[in-house]
Amino acid sequence: MRYISTRGAAPTLDFRGATLAGLASDGGLYVPDHWPTLSADEIAGLAGLSYVDTAVAVMAPFIGDSLSRDELRALCEQAYGRFSHAAVTPLRQLDHDQWVLELFHGPTLAFKDVALQLLGLLFERFLKDDDGAPLTIVGATSGDTGSAAIDAVAGREKIDIFMLHPAGRVSDVQRRQMTTVRAPNVHNIGIRGDFDTAQALVKAMFNDPAFSGRFRLSAVNSINWARLMAQVVYYFYAAVRLGAPGRPIAFSVPTGNFGDVFAGYVAARMGLPIERLIVATNVNDILHRALSAGDYSSATVVPTATPSMDIQVSSNFERLLFDLGDRDGAALAAQMQGFEASRAMRLTNAQHGGAAAHLASASVNADGMALAMRWAHEHAGELIDPHTAIALSAARSAAFDCPTVTLATAHPAKFPEAVERATGLSPALPARVGDLFEREEAFVTLDATFDAVSAYIAERATPRS
Ligand SMILES: *Cc1c(COP(=O)(O)O)cnc(C)c1O
C-alpha cells in the first residue's frame, strides 16, 4: 500500500513513512492510493471477533509491509489492553433503533484515546529501527487532544512531547489530566493567552526554518493518517454486531475536524453497508452548510458547551474533497489555495453530489443538545456528554429505517456542568481516574511570545545530530 498526497506534489510513501511524516511536504494530507475492500463474506466473518482481532483484520491492508500481522496484533493488544471495558468500544441500546457506541473507555475518557494509544506505539516501533534523531512533538490543545496525546507517548523511547495549553482556560479536569502525567519526556506549558494564540505559536515554530531545521518536529493532530485508520475499526466492530453485512447501519458523528466521520466514509468505501453517516455539528456549522448547500465558507467561531466541535476549518474535509473530486491533486491544490486566500469556496458538482450519496448533515443548537441529554437520561437511564448529545439529537431527527449508532466521543464526567444543567445529575469520574485531584501537577507558565516558548523547548529537546 502506498500513500499519496491530496495535493499531488509530495513523494509517495509507505505506511511507516506516512505515519512519521504526518503532513505531506506539499501542504496536503496523505491518503491510501486505493481503498482495500472486504467482501460481504469477509465482513460476515468479523462477527464475534474481539476488538483486537477486528482491528488486525481491518487495518492490515493499510499497513502493508510496514509491520507483520503478529507485530500489529501485539501493538493492538498493548494499546487496547489499557481500556477499562473488555469490549473496548461497547454498544448500548437506547431505544428500538437508537444505539450509542461508547468510545470513551480509554485512559483519558475521550475517543481520541482509541487512535492515539495506537499512534504512540507505532511511533515508538518505527523510530526503533530508524537511526535519525528523536521525535519532538509540539502541539497546542484546548483540552482533549493534549491529554490523550500525552498519555499515549508518556515514557516512550525517542519521543519528547511539548504541549501548550491556554493557562487558566482549560477545565481543572482537562489540565490535571495533562499535568499529573509524570514522565521525563512530557513537558506541559501554560501560555498566557488564549487557544488561538497557543496554536499560532506552534505554527510559527513549525514555519521557522532555524527552529524546525534543528529538531525533528512532528504533530499529533488528526492530519495523521494512522489516527484515522485506527478509527475505521469501530465502525466495522459496531456494524457487524447489529447485523451487517445483512442489513445497513447508519451512524451519527459529533464532528469537528472531520477525522472521525471520515473514518466512517473509509469503512463505507471498504464495503461496509453504511446507510448514511450523519455529520452532526453544533452552531459552528461550516460542514453542514458545505454538505447541504455546497458552501464551504468559514465564519467566526462561537464558543459552545461542545468545545471539541467549535471549529472554523475542518482539516480532514480535504481528504473527502480529494476522493470525490476524481483524486485530482492539482485541481484540489488550486481549490484549497482559493479557500486559504478568501476563507470561502464552492464544492464542485461532483464533490457535492458524491458527498450526498454517503453523508447527511445537521446543525444542532444548545436547546437541541440539552433535550437529547434529558431524553437519553429519562428514556434509557444514560448520562451522555454534550458532544454525544449533539449527534444523538441529529440521529433522532433523521429517523432512518435501520439501526442508527451515535458515536459517544467523551465520558459525561469530562463535562459535568453541562450534564448537570440538562439532567440535574452530576456524573462522577470513573474510579480509575478518581484520584486525579490528589496527584501532583507539573507545568510551567510562559509568556505568549515566540522567543520565550521556542527557547524553553530548544533547551529541552534533542537536536538532529
Ligand atoms: C475531537 C472530538 C470531536 C471531534 O472529532 P473530529 O474527528 O475532530 O471530527 C468530537 N467530540 C469530542 C469529545 C472530541 O474530543
UniProtKB/TrEMBL annotation:
Q: What is this protein called?
A: Threonine synthase
Q: Which first-to-last residue range defines the signal peptide? A: none
Q: Does the keyword Amino-acid biosynthesis apply?
A: yes
User: Which keywords are on file for this protein?
Assistant: Amino-acid biosynthesis, Lyase, Pyridoxal phosphate, Threonine biosynthesis
Q: Which GO terms describe its molecular function?
A: threonine synthase activity
The scientific name of the source species is: Sphingomonas olei
Q: RNA-binding among the record's keywords? A: no
- What are the coiled-coil residue ranges? none
Q: Which pathway does the UniProt entry assign to this protein?
A: Amino-acid biosynthesis; L-threonine biosynthesis; L-threonine from L-aspartate: step 5/5
